[in-house]
Write a structure and sequence with these properties.
alpha/beta; 5-stranded parallel β-sheet; Rossmann fold; single chain; 6 helices; 174 residues
Length: 174
């Protein structure tokens, strides 16, 4: 059988797709490939190159640690598991990984973009659906789930901003 690729972003909401993939993999005796994309650290001259590299390394280490925990949980649940730490645009990176690993299925969770936001910003799920060469399952979320996830992401973003400002301040002291 062919592996199942699950796109994850570190959120509880995205892990709903992991739950579905786990059940499918058990029933089909397939392996699950948990994938997380690390986007480049955006900078318009705001960070010096050395600091930017350290921030990117920290983001990559956090994503790798997250994927290792996901793989451990899958294996504890008797599912064959691998991980992929990807870089770049999420939808392109996921499609490239699915192609490279000859996946039979891609599983994603929708984060609920619709209407104008979807048309302006697009959606990883929409782009994967439109361009995938294998079947794609998109696990939907409710408005309440999305609101809860946005609140959690906002808190995490605030904490990350404080950590990054602290790193910038320390770098300037050197």
């Amino acid at each position: 059988m062919k592996p199942i690729l699950v796109g994850l972003d570190g959120s509880e909401l995205a892990e709903r797709g992991l739950s579905l993939a786990t059940e499918l993999a058990k029933g089909l005796d397939d392996k699950v490939i948990a994938a997380r994309v690390v986007p480049p650290t955006w900078s318009a001259g705001g960070y010096d190159p050395e600091l930017r590299q350290r921030l990117e390394a920290a983001d990559e280490a956090a994503a790798a640690g997250y994927l290792a925990k996901v793989a451990d949980r899958l294996r504890a649940d008797s599912v064959k598991a691998e991980t992929r730490l990807l870089h770049g645009d999420a939808w392109r990176a996921l499609l490239a990984a699915a192609h490279q690993d000859d996946c039979g299925l891609i599983v994603l969770t929708s984060h609920g973009l619709s209407g104008l936001a979807s048309r302006v910003f697009g959606s990883v799920a929409q782009k994967v659906l439109a361009n995938a060469s294998c079947p794609v399952v998109v696990v939907p979320c409710s408005d309440a789930d999305l609101a809860r996830e946005e609140e959690l992401e906002e808190r995490a973003s605030d904490e990350q901003a404080v950590q990054r400002m602290s790193a910038v301040a320390k770098a300037k002291q050197r």
